[in-house]
Design goal:
- This protein is of the alpha/beta class.
- The protein has 2 domains: 161 residues, Glutaconate Coenzyme A-transferase (3-Layer(aba) Sandwich); 33 residues, no CATH class.
- Helix content is 21%, strand content 26%.
- The strands form 2 sheets. Strands 1, 2, 3, 4, 8, 9, 10 and 11 form an 8-stranded mixed beta sheet that branches.
- Helix 5 packs across helix 6.
- InterPro entries: 3-oxoacid_CoA-transf_A (IPR012792), CoA_trans_fam_I (IPR004165), CoA_transf_BS (IPR004163), NagB/RpiA_transferase-like (IPR037171).
Length: 238
C-alpha cells in the first residue's frame, strides 16, 4: 500500500461536503496547516470539525470558519476566535462544547474500538442533558458517571515532526498534544510531516504513532507555526 501523497491537495481530494473531520493540535501548536489550507482552497462545505479549539480569526480552523465551510464545531476551548463567537451567537454555527479530558478520551475510545466511555466530568450539568448516567462503585466510592460515545470521524488530519513512508510518526515537544489520539481514531488518517524519510530510518523506540494507523502521508511546506499567546517574563530591574 502506497501511503505517500505528493501534497496536501491530493491527500484531501476525496473529502466531500458534509464530512466529519478530526483535526489535531492545541491552540495553534501542532495544527495541520497545509491540510487546512488545502481544504480552504477546495471549498468543501458542511463540515463537522472535532478539534480542541477553533483556531484564531485568520489562521487554523479560523480560515475555514471565515469561508463558512464548518457546519458544526465539537471543541473544548473556543475563546480566541471572534468570528466563531459571531457565528455561534447568530445561530449560523452548531457548537458542542466538551470537557477537555472527555474530548481526549472519546478520541482514544474510537482508536481502541470502544463504543463508549463513562466519566464523572459533566454529571449534574448541562453537558449531561439527555445522556445516560450510571452509578458505579470505584476505589471504594459510589458515584455517578456520564456515558459518552466514542467519536466517529470520516477523516483524522494530524501533523507530525517526522514521518516515514510507512506512516510511522514522531511528534515534537508540545505539538504532540491531541495528534496521537486522533491519528488512532479516524476511519482514514492523513498525516502531514515536516520531514518525510524512507522506511526504516526512524528509531522504533521513539515512534509515537505506528504506521498501522496512518493511511496517507505527505511532506508539508512553508510552516508558519504561529504562537497564539506569547507570554514573556518581565525584565528584572537593574
Amino acid at each position: 500500500m502506497n501511503k505517500v501523497y505528493t501534497d496536501a491537495a491530493t491527500a484531501v481530494a476525496d473529502i466531500v461536503n458534509g464530512a466529519t473531520l478530526m483535526l489535531g493540535g492545541f491552540g495553534l501548536c501542532g495544527i495541520p496547516e497545509n491540510a487546512i489550507a488545502a481544504l480552504v482552497a477546495k471549498k468543501v462545505t458542511g463540515l463537522t470539525c472535532i478539534s480542541n479549539n477553533a483556531g484564531v480569526d485568520d489562521f487554523g480552523i479560523g480560515l475555514m470558519l471565515q469561508q463558512r465551510q464548518v457546519k458544526k464545531m465539537i471543541s473544548s476551548y473556543v475563546g480566541e476566535n471572534a468570528e466563531f463567537e459571531r457565528q455561534l451567537l447568530s445561530g449560523e454555527l452548531e457548537v458542542e462544547l466538551i470537557p477537555q479530558g472527555t474530548l481526549a478520551t472519546r478520541c482514544l475510545a474510537a482508536g481502541y474500538g470502544m463504543p463508549a466511555i463513562f466519566t464523572p466530568a459533566g454529571v449534574g450539568t448541562e453537558v449531561a442533558q439527555g445522556k445516560e448516567v450510571r452509578r458505579f462503585a470505584f476505589n471504594g466510592e459510589e458515584k455517578d458517571y456520564l456515558m459518552e460515545y466514542a467519536f466517529e470521524a470520516d477523516f483524522a488530519i494530524v501533523k507530525a515532526w517526522k514521518g516515514d513512508t510507512q506512516g510511522n510518526l514522531i511528534y515534537k515537544d508540545t505539538a504532540r498534544n491531541f495528534n496521537p489520539m486522533m491519528a488512532m481514531a479516524g476511519k482514514i488518517t492523513i498525516a502531514e510531516v515536516e520531514e518525510l524519510v524512507p522506511a526504516g530510518e526512524l528509531d522504533p523506540n521513539f515512534i509515537h504513532t505506528p504506521g498501522i494507523y496512518v493511511h496517507r502521508i505527505f511532506q508539508g511546506v512553508n510552516y508558519e507555526k504561529r504562537i497564539e499567546q506569547r507570554t514573556v517574563r518581565k525584565q528584572a530591574a537593574e
